[in-house]
Amino acid sequence: MNNKDTIYIDVDDEITSIIDKVQNTQESIVALVLPKRAAMLQSSVNMKLLKRAADKAKKNVVLITTEAGLLPLASSVGLFVAKNLQSKPEIPKATVPIGAIDELIKADDQESTTADFDSKAVAGVAVGELATDDLMTNNHPAKPELTPLPYKRASNEEESVMLDNSEKTEEKEADNTKEDKKAKDKNLKVPNFDKFRKGLIIAVVLIILLVVGFIFANRILPKAVITISTNTSSVNSSLALTLSPSTSTLNTNQLIVPTKIQQSPQTASKQVPTTGTKNEGQVATGTVSFVATVNSSSGAITPSTIPAGIGISSGGLTFITQQPTVFSGRVHNCGTNCDQYYSNPTTTTITAQSPGSKYNLGSNSQPAPFTSTYQDSNNSGTVYSATGSTTQGTDNLVTVVSQTDITNAAQAIAMPPTASVKSTLTSALETAGYYPVQTSYSAGTPAITQSANVGDQATTVTVTEAVTYTMFGVHESDLSTLVTASVDQQINTKKQSIQDLGLGKATFTGVTQSPTQATLTMQTSSTVGPLLNIAQIKSQIAGLKKGDLETLIEQNPGVTSVSVKYSPFWVSSTPKNTSKITIKVKKAS
Known about the structure:
23% of the residues lie in helices and 33% in strands. It is α+β, with helices and mostly antiparallel strands. Helix 2 (44-56) links the parallel strand 2 (29-33) and strand 3 (60-64). Helix 1 runs parallel beside helix 2.
């Protein structure tokens, strides 16, 4: 049993699309349900293409349609037709010549009027025979002449196709099937317009790329470097300049140049741990009794009073007297020309210079000895000494900032490298339109600050250094004016011209600067040679070949030789764009 496949055709489907659907179906019977006025099959050529493709794919195609205009076409190629999916398919019997069929199709698209149609006269005539006005004679339908089919028409009994059958045919020969699939009918090929369109687009893109590449290779890339050797010489200039930021115009007589002072403040810090210690304990206090030993060789002289605030020491520890010490008459003779005097009152209050338990000295039973460096104003030979004791000194050690900590932190500060600061100043001047005078670079006096003072209680201390760096900048046009004036005084301007001022290799020496101005000496070596108009030469040689170019330039007085170099390698003539031409003037060696 054969199975069927039903395919619904859209009014916009092309014949190639219908053929593809028929060939791609898996069933041997294909029912094509056509829309009303199926334009794609109202052509004998399309109908033949459909029939041939179905036969080649071993498919039985049945057209489901009631269009009268399609019946003659289906009959002419031997395609089955049915009114609906339940009707029995058959090949229409009536056939007409192909020319007549095309006329039938045209007539089917025209509307007939009731005035020209006689229903009684055409009763019993086949619907396909009424499809065109060209087959009507005196309002009576005339049957078209039948022409023999180009193939034998099979009878309905032999060729009937049952649309309702559900089984596939089993009669397939393997060898024939393979050969049929491999064979292709070239007449069925339809032009692939998408492929043609893609190819056309690619061709257009390639042409555009070729045009752009040609322009780029012949207009953009070509360059010419022309070196002109001349009888040139060097002229040295040495100018003592004054760079003044307060001057706005160039003074060519006094060589005062308007200047911009560019500054770059830089700061850097370093933090270090503190290493100093301080005793925050109590200060020891006590009393001492003074004895003044006097040299009496010149007579008895009472020692001078020791004022308050005088330092005395014992065991390397210093104590301060808190009250004046007065001495009474001689109380003891200590030998030849030696008299001793005791303090009155007997004791003097003293206080330790610093806190600490180590200042607790002596006792009442065993007083500690003290010495004094106080000089007697009446007798320089008087020696003061004392004995006594001190108590109540305590210890409380804390970490404090030492001078060593400050020094170490300051030495560890890393300021930005000189090259980096110079680069910053140079860029700033160039951005502002000035010529940087590199040798005017200077660093200001560092300003050092610290987070804590020496002796302050702290675990760390931070030292900060701030330095302002300075560089002077001038307008290059001002330097050019001064150098040009200097060179013009040394050459014959009617026959010679400046080829290179030499500003790129200028040196500045003897810089002396202050916050308001700087003085220095600028030295340059300028190149002078024949009077050549570079712009005019460029316009004259644009587009010339190498030989013509060399001949033209060598005609200028003072030119000894011309060297031409083109790039890239395919360039054989001078670019017409003068911006692509570089002319170098080479002085004589």
